[in-house]
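Exercise: predict the fold of this chain.
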Amino acid sequence: MTSNPAIQAAIDLTAGAAAGTACVLTGQPFDTMKVKMQTFPSLYRGFTDCCLKTYSQVGFRGFYKGTSPALIANIAENSVLFMCYGFCQQVVRKVVGLDKQAKLSDLQNAAAGSFASAFAALVLCPTELVKCRLQTMYEMETSGKIAKSQNTVWSVVKSILRKDGPLGFYRGLSSTLLREVPGYFFFFGGYELSRSFFASGRSKDELGPVSLMLSGGVGGICLWLAVYPVDCIKSRIQVLSMSGKQTGFIGTFISVMKNEGIMALYSGLKPTIIRAFPANGSLFLAYEYSRKLMMSQFEAH
């Protein structure tokens, strides 16, 4: 950690951007399957069926629908998340009465990550809305919920602005916050506990890439197991509001429970769990290594 908070924030921001890029490049096809299965569970018998149908309908590019907003979403979210994580760690140190350079416990790091995620949700919600709508455009058109339209980022952005104005980009913000704040407690908690397990007495900073990737994967699985139904409701709100259907979190939850049962809230869980290791493993690997590299460059000067 540097003594200059502005430089530390810039390093965390840049490392977060690298982490977000790595996460999307490794995990996007799984994320697309997750969103399709969450919003149209009756169309797919399972993960393999969803993959095969997507390929036959729109080809290989179908797996990467929404990649550009996903990249923007993840870069923005992780830049803000890791920059605020650094600040929130200092807040936690102050609250518990620790020195500025003191190491936090795994639980304290989890709390700092949870606070930081509230700020990240504000930049994540608009870009994730565009991503989810692009990912499910084919299903929305073929089910007759919306008319055929241009399938581009810009056309989705224009349609949101036309229908709901700038605040339309924050459709699903309450469910995004409801997912992020508890979810990131488990995310950072799972990651830090796994690093402690692999370090077994050594410094966590000495861990190699395999241990970091496994720890990131465990963090990702902890997050999704804790908040998956909330994410499912959020995807429904963001996608189905395209057809003019405006329901809030409670309304959507009651409707899913009444019409489809509790298991519908877990549609798409398999690709999400499979995605956790490559995507979150790459995320933390990119974050830790780029952060270390920038810190050593700064200290050398």
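Check your answer against the key: The chain has one domain: 5-300.
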